[in-house]
Write a structure and sequence with these properties.
mainly alpha; 2 strands; disordered N terminus; DUF4034 domain-containing protein
Length: 368
């Protein structure tokens, strides 16, 4: 049974920053920020700046397919073609289909409906009205409930704002608590339905993060998630994120969890270690210098991912980035040679063109 209301909400516990979507199975309710930009920017020289100007941006072919799919689903949503959405979600659940980067299609289905923090209040209202219309049209739909719970969780963080705890208004805190509580209720109702969906527990994990669920209860929720869908790697990246010291973890917790996740017999194996590293690199200026993370384990997982998903430029870009952070010149050079001049602008991998050039220069020359 989902257990989302065991801990009282506390504004002081939640230092929310900002969130940008990336190649992770995660709800947009999860906040995120990058620590890499400042360090990189301070070391860019004139030659690198000029080379960056000449650099041509490209898009990831996999990301293009995902964006087109999300657009198609969003159009169905706002046109209130709920029967078509029900059929699509059912098919995605049954097939367990993934895109060319390993991202589950069912996750991208739900992310098509998520709003951005900068959206006007009227847009949020339209979205909520549409979710309620979906529930009215399909009152026994697990899909409609999960979509609505995901919306409410996202809306909760929106109410709170993007500042630290001392910037949160009493009204913002009240609305966040109210919306997270409602999201938890919607998820518990969804759990009673016969059709199962891996996204249910992923949204539940982000509700738990916002509600301040303590470690033992969060881990029980994670066990339920793994039991429901053992190979769904989004549960592990979500848990690793929640173990950052900025949330509810202690130093070394998320790194230890990454090892445990990779060793889970029925899990995704070493590739989930790399997935976690791709998630956590944004929260460090240099993740290998500032944590107990293992580059050999990361590289093993990345090589598995690159073999499974050769079309993904984002995975290749993360490999180049992480090899550079690990000061593995040989691997970094090989990854960058494969990338060539393909700079992914619509991606969270590189903070800027200048950072891409700066890292590539080191890979080629061994000098910063």
């Amino acid at each position: 049974m989902l257990r989302l209301n065991l801990s009282p909400f506390s504004i002081a516990l939640i230092p929310l920053l900002c969130f940008t979507a990336c190649d992770s199975e995660q709800s947009s309710a999860a906040p995120q920020s990058s620590s890499r930009s400042k360090e990189i920017a301070e070391n860019i020289d004139k030659e690198e700046a000029l080379e960056a100007i000449r650099l041509q941006s490209v898009t990831d072919p996999v990301a293009d397919k995902i964006e087109a799919y999300r657009k198609q689903m969003a159009e169905l949503f706002y046109a209130q073609k709920f029967e078509a959405l029900e059929k699509e979600a059912s098919a995605a659940r049954a097939s367990k289909e993934v895109f060319g980067n390993g991202s589950w299609k069912i996750v991208q289905f739900y992310q098509a409906f998520e709003r951005k923090s900068e959206d006007a209040l009227g847009i949020w209202n339209v979205a909520e009205d549409t979710h309620n219309a979906w529930l009215k049209a399909f009152p026994n739909s697990v899909t409609a409930r999960i979509a609505y719970a995901d919306f409410l969780t996202n809306y909760a963080w929106h109410a709170r704002g993007t500042g630290y705890a001392d910037t949160v208004t009493s009204e913002g805190g009240r609305l966040m608590h109210e919306r997270l509580t409602k999201a938890g209720k919607v998820l518990n109702d969804a759990l009673k339905l016969p059709e199962k969906d891996p996204m249910l527990h992923l949204v539940a994990l982000y509700v738990a993060l916002g509600k301040g669920l303590d470690k033992p209860d969060y881990d029980k929720l994670l066990e339920e998630a793994h039991a429901s869908e053992p190979t769904f790697w989004g549960y592990d990246t979500a848990r690793a994120y929640s173990l950052l010291p900025r949330w509810y973890g202690n130093k070394g917790d998320w790194e230890a969890f990454a090892v445990t996740a990779a060793e889970r017999p029925d899990g995704p194996g070493m590739e989930v270690y790399a997935r976690i590293m791709m998630r956590m690199v944004d929260f460090h200026e240099n993740v290998f210098r500032e944590s107990k993370a293992s580059w050999p384990k990361t590289k093993e997982g990345l090589d598995i991912l690159r073999k499974k998903y050769p079309e993904s430029l984002e995975i290749l870009s993360y490999a180049a980035l992480l090899a550079t952070c690990a000061f593995d010149n040989k691997s970094a050079k090989a990854y960058f040679e494969e990338l060539g001049d393909r700079y992914l602008e619509k991606s969270s991998v590189w903070p800027s063109k200048e950072s891409f050039i700066h890292y590539r220069k080191w890979a080629r020359t061994g000098k910063w």
